[in-house]
Automatic annotation (TrEMBL):
Name by which UniProt lists this protein: Riboflavin synthase
EC number: 2.5.1.9
Lumazine-binding repeat positions: 1-97, 98-194
Keywords: Repeat
CDD domains, A to Z: Riboflavin_synthase_like
Protein's gene: ribC
Length: 206
């Protein structure tokens, strides 16, 4: 489990491609690798990956074919930086919201507005996922817990503060790029439950 508070952006220094998976080698800081062990879970752009090897602050992850297809890790190249968060430790402050590291879908960057007053990103997603995305609600964006701005039938707006831009890789994204999306699980459960109840009542009334 994760909090959506990105700890660092780290460079992908190599990608070894094999049948059915890619092995990512990510350069981390000594602070991030302190106490990290093989088998631990680390979020890379919001995707929960298992550590397979640690070598001189280089951390290795095996990324399965399905994960490559369903997330933007499939478009990641050597030299790119990914958002990194280690697993949640109970007893410490939680500043974001609980994320599982299981990406639901990808959003396409529709527009970027960077002015002296603001930095806004407009995202477009499949309309079925907009049932779970609400104005002022939370959503995981490349593993970063963010508040939703204006919403439409096909997407939503993000209003990013300088601190978020400094600590994450979101400033690197341009129109047409793909960003990993994890919706809030509690919101999904509530919406799905209400829809089932309403559908059942409608069926009984017919």
């Amino acid at each position: 489990m994760f909090t959506g508070i990105v700890q660092a952006t780290c460079e992908v220094v190599s990608i070894h491609k094999a049948a059915g998976l890619n092995t990512f080698e990510v350069a981390m800081t000594p602070k991030l690798t302190q106490g990290l062990v093989t088998g631990a879970s680390v979020a890379n752009n919001g995707v929960c990956l298992t550590v397979t090897k640690i070598l001189n602050d280089k951390v290795f992850f095996d990324v399965m074919e399905e994960t490559l297809a369903l997330t933007n890790l499939g478009n990641t190249s050597v030299g790119d930086h990914v958002n990194i968060e280690r697993s949640l430790t109970f007893g410490t402050e939680i500043g974001g919201h609980i994320l599982s590291g299981h990406v639901h879908t990808q959003a396409t960057v529709k527009a970027v507005s960077n002015t002296a007053e603001h930095y806004n990103i407009e995202l477009q997603v499949d309309s079925k996922w907009m049932n779970y995305i609400f104005y002022k609600g939370f959503v995981g964006i490349n593993g970063c817990s963010l508040t939703v701005g204006k919403v439409s039938d096909s997407g939503f707006m993000l209003h990013l503060i300088p601190e978020t831009l400094k600590l994450t890789n979101l400033s690197q994204y341009k129109v047409g790029d793909k960003i990993n999306i994890e919706i809030d699980s509690q919101t999904q459960v509530i919406v799905d439950t209400v829809e089932r109840i309403l559908a059942k009542k409608q069926l009984l009334n017919n």
